[in-house]
Amino acid sequence: MKKYLSFFIIRLTTGLQYRAAALAGISTQFAWGGMTLLMFRAFYQYSSSAFPMTFRELSSYIWLQQAFLALYMSWYFDNDIFDSITSGSIAYELCRPVDLYTMWFAKNAAVRMSRAVLRCMPILVIAAFLPEPFNVSLPASFLSGLLFLISMIMGFLVLVAFSMLIYITALYTLSPLGIRVVATSAIEFFTGAIIPLPFFPQSIRNIVHLLPFAYIQNTPFLIYNGYISGTEMYKSILLQAVWLLLLWASGKLLMKRALKKVIVQGG
Q1: Phi/psi at 192 (nearest 5 deg)?
Q2: What is the pLDDT of residues 35-58, one digit of tens each?
Q3: What is the DSSP letter of 211?
């Protein structure tokens, strides 16, 4: 376990060095969050339809989404991993006395965390001082805040575990581009990154909640703003744990099978 922690720390400290990129990301995400809220505000003011969340709840959801975008962004993949597969340098990694799945998992998690650490606090601090109802509010309750932290970690691990399946499929294909495009589109839509899941029709939500995507960023953010409360919070976190175990076990099994047939060409 110590060696995997070393991989994690190395990638984390490396990612923390890109402060200029973080500043650019903060300004971009703050502008994007503001435009998204203004768009929804127009719908709330000029539509006679009932909305599933109050605008205050939605505001907290949007700012949390922007603050932790680097943690949950679907389009990020570690190109070093893909390059090692397509170039054949994975042969060097296979010579190391490490579990390849765990090493890739640690590296992927570290890079995402390093980017989120640099960006989340400035966005949340600025959003907290915005006028109501455009600001991010405190958690619905102390328990919601505590379970939000637990759920956020679980959702993060679910996303990384799902991303590992994408890396592994690259071992079976000539190019990882196609599966990346399909996976990114699916994750982006079904996690609520484009439209929060409570705004989906009930029939579609019933399907989405059978998939792992609803238990990534959607669950912790809805716990935070109070949309999910009571026993539903515990049930949602339990489902996150179930999906994490299923995805992790699937990834380990697929990796084991894939490595039995790896052929590295060239000299």
Answers
A1: 90, 15
A2: 999 999 998 888 777 888 989 999
A3: S
CA distance 49 to 51: 6
Nearest residue to 98 (alpha-carbon basis) of 257, 259, 241:
259
Q: Are 58 and 196 in contact (CB under 8 A)?
A: yes
Q: Is 177 exposed, middle or buried (0-12, 13-18, 19+ CB in 10 A)?
A: exposed
**Tokens 């975008």 belong to residue:** 69
Mean pLDDT of the chain: 87
Token duo for residue 162: 């799902």
> Per-residue pLDDT averaged across 203-215, rounded?
91
Give the three-class secondary structure for 256: helix
- Residue 242 inside a domain? The answer is yes
pTM: 0.90
Per the structure, how many domains does the chain have? 1
pLDDT tops 50 at residue 267 = no
My answer on whether omega of the bond before 139 falls inside 30° of 0, hence cis, is: no
How many Cα atoms are found within 13 Å in the side-chain-facing hemisphere of 215? 28
CB 40 within 8 Å of CB 4:
no
Contact indicator for 158, 247 with CB cutoff of 8 Å: yes
Identify whether 129 is part of a domain: yes
Range of the domain at 174: 2-259
The per-residue pLDDT for range 242-258, each reduced to its tens digit, is: 999 999 999 999 988 88
Q: What is the maximum alpha-carbon separation in the chain?
A: 68
> Terminus-to-terminus CA distance in the chain, angstroms?
33
